[in-house]
Design goal:
This protein is 45% helix and 15% strand. The protein is of the alpha/beta class and 612 residues long. It has 4 domains: 1-136; 157-347, Rossmann fold (3-Layer(aba) Sandwich), CATH 3.40.50.300; 353-424, Helicase, Ruva Protein, domain 3, CATH 1.10.8; 439-609, Ribosomal Protein S5, domain 2, CATH 3.30.230. The longest helix is centred in the first third of the chain and has 53 residues, at 64-116. The protein is elongated.
């Protein structure tokens, strides 16, 4: 049995070492006689010399089995190593062959490209596909057709348009910031104002002056100046690469940005308040210098291989003399003060339902279709944005032409088509028609503004005689904010001053309906009126809205957002508004459809609100 194992091990050893290497080693160690002999211990001794390289005495009979086991393990390891080595060598040969084949193919392509130019069947096929796409067009979109094409088509913004055109078409045009709610025509007004300026002989803008438009929310840049689409950047020849002839010479290549493309024209940045603050500061530097400079550690002024245009860009910079027009829906105080100090400001007003009706009727005329009477009025109830109103009309047009299956100029838009769009879009009426005739105890309508859109805030109060005189409590909803609490305490002081009533004799609860939050003191007069009404059980007129800060001396202090608040009152069918007397100068001179009262003291406001 042991002899058989030794024969197998010897055969495995020959496979592992290879016959030639095996025979040479046997001959070198003079082991041939031991391996061919009949003595088992001598065979084991010979295998030990071959496998384990041990030069020691032959094993004793009782040690043979252990030594054979050790030999078997060593030979198996040797075979495993050989298999792994052969596998690695095979994979290495295959990889080398692949690299060699790939290199030969690239070399062939390089030679072919050198003699045949940059084109190949694949690039020519892609070029043909692009040419085919260029010949195919869907024509103008409906929004392009309905977009204002002249200043006169922008509705409801006469004052803002007049101011913007005056600032742009002047011999010395100014940078402008446009404030206003979304969808009222800020972008269209800026684009059309340039056209008006180009028509003026004294204007610095010419027919080839560019109008470069960009969205401030999508402007991204790299702090390492690797990429900056607004100001421009430098493509170095190592990390980013440049054109081949420049890269081979190690020449960096500047890429001009939008500020240079807008040179001699207008750069319009929508939502400028959303731009990165650092990028805003860089843009301010360009506005001052009217030039953008480039830097690169790879630029060598002594290098004679640098083209003239690159040398000029690095040494003199690129021109960037343009007029900046920025549009935003933010409040002025949230805009970078440095921007505001360098720009004039124009405020766009929220659109009234009447403005929406005019926009819809103009759009219908542009489409050349017929529309049922009352459709424009329906749309005006669901939006205050001109863009949204036109979108609703466009959707209704699509529904009508699909259901009627007629020529585009034969389409008839019905009120049902409008309501179908409203239902599909899950729209809710924007105007709640809060204003009503009559009077109610403890309910006052205050005026608020958010995002340049005025609204009505319902403030209600209720008062009960306290269980113990002078130990009453005041309860205010937490969601109303700390300013509401301050206004309530101010109102309590004014009530005591003008009537002698102690609010502490009552348990009072003040609530802003709908969970509204009051961020400023402008609801002070409304809270005062609600408390007086609740304590004295005097009804308050429900067709009058009020705004104004109240001081503990009973004075009505001026507040902001007067124009927006008045428009909000008109949309909610108010017959009159009460505002601080010092805000009367802000009321538009052509205002109609609503009466405006200016008051200086709380008593004047209460007299109007409690009148029959």
């Amino acid at each position: 049995m042991l002899e058989r194992q030794l024969a197998v091990l010897e055969e495995m050893l020959q496979d592992g070492m290879g016959s030639k290497a095996y025979n040479e080693k046997v001959k070198d160690l003079d082991l041939e006689g031991f391996l061919k002999g009949d003595d088992v211990t001598l065979k084991i001794y010979a295998l030990q010399r071959l496998v384990l390289d041990r030069d020691q005495e032959p094993p004793r009979p009782e040690e043979c089995l252990a030594v054979v086991k050790e030999l078997r393990t060593a030979i198996i390891d040797m075979l495993a190593q050989r298999v792994v080595k052969e596998k690695i060598n095979k994979e290495l040969r295959e990889r080398i062959q692949q690299r060699q084949d790939q290199y030969m193919e690239e070399l062939k392509l390089a030679i072919l490209k050198k003699h045949s130019g940059p084109e190949n069947p694949t690039t020519l096929k892609k070029y043909a596909r692009l040419q085919k796409l260029e010949r195919r067009s869907l024509g103008k979109s409906i929004m392009e057709i309905l977009r204002p094409s002249s200043i006169d088509e922008i509705v409801g913004q006469q004052r803002a348009i007049k101011a913007l055109v005056a600032k742009i078409s002047s011999p010395y045009p100014q940078h402008v910031l446009l404030y206003g709610p979304p969808g009222v025509g800020k972008t269209s007004a800026a684009r059309l104002a340039l056209k008006v300026a180009q028509s003026k002989e004294y204007s610095p803008f010419t027919e080839d002056s560019n109008f470069i438009e960009v969205d401030g929310t999508t402007l991204r840049w790299d702090t390492r100046e690797i990429a900056n689409p607004l100001l421009g950047s430098v493509h170095d020849p190592i990390y980013q690469g440049s054109s081949r002839d420049l890269a081979e010479r190690g020449v960096p290549e500047p890429k001009i940005g939008l500020v240079t493309q807008a040179h001699g024209g207008i750069l319009f940045i929508d939502e400028i308040g959303e731009m990165d603050p650092v990028l805003q500061n860089k843009l301010l530097k360009v506005l001052e210098d009217k030039r953008i400079t480039f830097e690169s550690i790879y630029y060598d002024a002594c290098n004679k291989d640098i083209p003239l245009y690159i040398r000029k860009l690095f040494e003199e910079g690129a021109p960037a003399d343009f007029i900046l027009i920025g549009a935003t829906t933010r409040q002025p105080e949230s805009i970078n003060p440095a921007f505001r100090s360098r720009c004039t400001e124009v405020f766009f007003e929220p659109l009234t339902p009447a403005d929406i009706v005019i926009i819809i009727n103009n759009a219908v005329n542009k489409l050349g279709v017929r529309m049922e009477k009352g459709c424009a009025e329906i749309i005006s109830q669901y939006t205050i944005e001109g863009r949204k109103a036109v979108n609703i009309l466009a959707d209704a047009y699509n529904i009508a032409i699909a259901s009627q299956d007629c020529a585009p100029d034969k389409v008839y838009i019905s009120c049902n088509d409008i309501y179908t769009v409203i239902q599909n879009s899950r729209l809710t009426p924007y105007v709640r028609n809060t204003g009503k005739s009559g009077a109610r105890v403890g309910r006052v309508l205050a005026l608020g503004v958010a995002g340049y859109v005025g609204s009505i805030l319902e403030i209600e109060a209720i008062a009960f005689t306290a269980l113990r005189k002078g130990e009453g409590t005041i309860r205010i909803n937490d969601t109303a904010g700390s300013m509401t609490k301050d206004s309530v305490f101010n109102a309590a002081a004014v009530i005591r001053k003008i009537s002698g009533e102690m609010v502490s004799d009552y348990d009072v609860h003040v609530n802003c309906i709908g969970g509204g939050r009051v961020d400023g003191p402008s609801a002070g007069v409304a809270i005062l009126a609600a408390l007086v009404s609740a304590i004295k059980q005097k009804p308050v007129r429900q067709d009058i809205a009020v705004t104004g800060e109240i001081s503990i001396q009973g004075e009505v202090k001026p507040v902001g957002g007067i124009i927006e608040k008045i428009y909000g009152a008109k949309q909610n069918d108010m017959s009159a508004v009460i505002i601080p007397a010092r805000n009367l100068k802000e009321v538009p001179s052509d205002l109609s459809g609503i009466k405006v009262y200016g008051v200086e003291r709380a008593e004047e406001a209460l007299e109007i609100l409690f009148s029959e």
